[in-house]
Amino acid sequence: MMAAISGLAQPQVFPWVAAVLGLCIGSFLNVVIHRLPKMMEREWRAQCAELGAPPGRVDAGAESAAYNLVVPRSRCPSCGHGITALENIPVLSWLVLRGKCSACSATISPRYPAVEIAAALAAGYAAWRYGFSLAGLGAMAFCWVMIALTFIDLDTQLLPDDLTMPLLWGGLALNLDANFAPLSSAVIGAIAGYLSLWAVYWAFKFATGKEGMGYGDFKLLAAIGAWLGWQALPLVVLLSSIVGAVAGISLILLTKRGRDNPIPFGPYLAAAGLIALFWGPQITQRWLPILG
Questions:
Q1: What is the mean pLDDT of residues 132-147?
Q2: How far apart are CA 92 and CA 104, in angstroms?
Q3: Per-residue model confidence as pLDDT tens digits over 160-208
Q4: What are phi and psi of 82, to 5 degrees?
Q5: How far is CA 143 from CA 23, 24, 31, 54, in A?
Q6: Is 178 exposed, middle or buried, given 0-12, 13-18 or 19+ CB atoms closer than 10 A?
Q7: 90 contacts 24 by C-beta, under 8 angstroms
Q8: Are 124 and 19 in contact (CB under 8 A)?
Q9: What integer best gives the mean pLDDT of the chain?
Q10: Of 133, 126, 116, nearest to 273 (Cα)?
Q11: Which of 115, 177, 206, 244 is deepest in the core (most CB within 10 A)?
């Protein structure tokens, strides 16, 4: 057993093992992205029912059926065909099926294999960057959660506490041994990450009377600060703001999207967090002196 683990831990082997694992985790991330918001909605409906929602507003029969990340089994949303094990092989099944349901030929979104490939590439790079270590395993988990949060926010403009809060506590726990930042820096990073966007939120609200972002964004930046330390926060905020501004202006110009339509900020924070995780010190050392 130890010999097998030692073999998998070799620098030439571990990134490939991590990439294969990432494909499998990516398949599960697709389930999380699709189901977690629905689970949250069901929970909210149940709470409304407990508080005495008007009759007919809550379907008690539908809400009582088990629905979580495990059950019911995955099905085609068009015809209800149950996805078999052979139809659920990451990326390969989508290619073999040519992106269509085997029962009704409904189109299967290419986003499913895209998420799986992204999870595999991120895990492989994290394994190569940090090696077979607690930091390497932590970096892989960080990437996977960021991928899930990105697509959930794009779909629903939600950043679930079920992901952001474990991410925050996980960062603090890993930094007990300073895997990514000293613990004191991680604690300050969590506090500063939350309070910085909280302050921006209230300043914008007082100035305009509108909400510029959600509380999930505060928690996500706090989680990034808990992983990378407070020193990484200026870079994360700068990168996310630049990318968010470019993307927002592009959406307005190319899709004629109104300025009043909300644009999720979580994906830009997640992307900036990943950049800071892998290349933050190099970017800071190279560009900050140039910026003066």
A1: 97
A2: 19
A3: 999 999 999 999 999 999 999 999 999 999 999 999 999 988 888 888 8
A4: -70, 130
A5: 13, 14, 16, 42
A6: middle
A7: yes
A8: yes
A9: 87
A10: 126
A11: 115
- For residue 24, the one-letter residue type is C
CA 222 – CA 49 distance, rounded (Å): 33
Lowest mean pLDDT among 4-18, 23-37, 100-114, 267-281: 4-18
Taking a C-beta distance cutoff of 8 angstroms, is the pair 277, 239 a contact?
Answer: no
Give the contacts of 165 (CB within 8 A, at least 6 positions apart).
219, 223
Q: Please write the tens of the pLDDT for every residue from 54-95.
A: 555 545 445 557 888 888 888 888 888 888 888 889 999 999
For 193, the token pair is 């990450």
Q: Taking 60 as the threshold, does the pLDDT of residue 213 lie above it?
A: yes
Cβ-based burial of 212 (10 A; exposed 0-12, middle 13-18, buried ≥19): middle
Phi, psi at residue 236, to the nearest 5°? -60, -45
Whose tokens are 């093992």? That residue is 17
Task: Compute CA distances 218 → 19, 20, 201, whole Å.
Answer: 31, 33, 9
Backbone angles phi, psi at 266, to 5 degrees: -55, -45
Helices assigned H by DSSP within 209-265 = 215-228, 233-255
